[in-house]
Amino acid sequence: MINWFNHRKPQPSIHTDLHSHLIPGIDDGVKSWEQSLNIIQGLYALGVNKIITTPHIINDYYPNKPETILAGVEELNQRLTEADIKAKVIAGAEYYIDDWFIAAIDDDTELLTFGNQYILVETAFMNKPLQLEEVFFKLRAKGFTPILAHPERYQYLQENYSLIQPIIDMGVKLQINSSSFIGYYSKEAKKTAEHLVKQGQVHFIGSDIHHEQHLANYQKAMKTKYFKKAGQLSLLNNSL
User: Which key words tag this protein in UniProt (predicted)?
Assistant: First the structure.
């Protein structure tokens, strides 16, 4: 196993990560258990001791079920124990807002949540879903608290910041990807992430780790001005 960090351990303010893809073979995340353990060891070295891993649930591409994810998390924790890595992994999911997800809410299908009934959701990157507000309303009515994953990456929000506060006012929390602070996705995503921090509209920071490059990104992001400024907000990561 690679020793990622031989230098002095930094002291981050974030000890719980709520967005990652660390179960091999079920989405576009890690390809092997070895890769997963290596990434978790790296996160632990950076002070992250609890990881909520959130495989994609996209019915047409990654039709994962709660039982599949829970079984994967159980095996992952067993492997962490055997490798003497002290981090703990919790099961979650990243739900794509589409017709299947809307039907699942209406039918009371079992949905994976974490913390205080938080549920992580994402949308298409280009266009705002027509039923976005309806989905948030339905989730809130069912007792869930939606977390919108990486809002800084959505073009419809990059082009219209006025859409952001109404989403928050519906009881939705916003989760920024750490890699956005180093411009990994695009200049527009970086600019929007910084805007959200300046406006105090960030509730969580997540790694959204899929592979080892994202681990290196996380380490770089921790050193950026806006990651540190976000850490001065009332982030909810460590309440999970």
Answer: Hydrolase
Tally of structural domains, the chain: 1
**DSSP conformational letter for 116:** T
pLDDT along the chain (240 residues), means of 10: 48 84 97 98 97 97 97 98 97 97 97 97 96 97 98 98 98 98 98 98 98 97 96 94
Tell me the DSSP string of 40-64. HHHHHHTT--EEEE--EEBTTTB--
Alpha carbon 141 to its chain's center: 23
Q: How far apart are CA 158 and CA 95, in angstroms?
A: 21
* CATH classification at residue 228: 3.20.20.140
Planar angle of CA 141, 146, 149, nearest 5 degrees? 160
- Calculate the alpha carbon distances from 66 to 17, 26, 112, 151 in Å: 19, 12, 6, 25
| b/e map 94-104, b = 16+ CB within 10 Å | bbbbbeebeeb
Contacts of residue 49, Cβ cutoff 8 Å, sequence gap at least 6: 15, 16, 86, 87, 88
Residue 233 lies in a domain: yes
Nearest to 147 by CA among 197, 92, 107: 92
Q: Are 123 and 178 in contact (CB under 8 A)?
A: no
Please answer whether residues 158 and 118 qualify as being in contact, where contact means their C-beta atoms are separated by less than 8 angstroms. Answer: no
Q: Which residues span the domain enclosing 172? A: 16-239
